[in-house]
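Hi U.,

Before I forget, here's the chain from the pilot set. I'm dumping it here mostly so it's searchable later in email.
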Amino acid sequence: MKRLFLLVSLLVLSKFSAQTWATEDQYIQKFAKYAVEEMEKYRIPASITLAQGLLETGGGQSRLALEGKNHFGIKCKEDWTGKTMKHTDDAPNECFRVYDDPRQSYEDHSIFLSTRKYYANLFNLDMKDYKAWATGLKKAGYATNPRYASILIGKIEKYRLYEFDNTSSKEVLYAVLKMYPNLKDDRAFMAQLEPEKYTKKAKDPVIIEVPYKQTSYAQQQKRVERIKTKAEMLNSILIKSHPNDGLKYIVIPEDTNIEAIAKKFKISESKLIKWNELEGDVLHKNDIVFLESKNSAGNTATYKAEAGEDMHDIAQKFGIKLNKLYAKNRMDEGQKPSVGQLIYLIDKKPRN
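Structure:
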């Protein structure tokens, strides 16, 4: 009986080990493309993102991942307005974010890292130096486990995730196939790689005569194009690191409004308006928008005002709070600088 119990136990353990191994490989096959997409947009190594996802979800099997599509254990915080779920982590029944799609979780993780000041130094590292990134995450307090950096590095090297740091979103599926050659027999995977080969041809459509209105159709097409263009514009925005202490900011590629940017980066409209000292909700092409509060001083001593610039333009250019900039230059609120005027950015302007 003991021998039988021992045999069954070994079989169960063997099966469990194999399942864990397969699960982690399957996680990589499914989510590597998301990690590479995020690397292109936010300059976070794909190997780091993927290793964190593997670790946080237990290879995609955690309750948060399965029920909440939350792959990085991001908690609600005060600025989250989306769906939530309760889960016991550091304390009982903590509030965690819930996403409609894992891709949203991946982007939220990127935004989380790129918009918080204590992770700013990470973005000065070589994007292909996964060891430095792993160590930097631990130093910045991302996790409490003292072995967090070595665990991430272990995952990256075990599964050769560093290979994804050297690919692009257009080539990532080929990189996955090279890593897992047996996927050539997986129709679902190959359909992503060669959709024209695996997609069934649609039957000829049934033609129905409908009264045609040129004006309504044109208006509808314009609306579709506007929505498509807006989505493409928002997707093209990259978070940048400002020379003034690494402040996170973006440059608006086309005219839009503050609501669209707030939704994109999951920051309240009121905060964006306050941080950027905006008087309305309209944003114009090439406007600079900060995703965190600006500093009280610049990173260079002075600047000569150019034609057409006002003090708000200069405050945005150098990442300085507008009221501080007025005070440093002994100017009244709303007063405009003259062309060539020396604007003080760090110290206060000397009295005449």
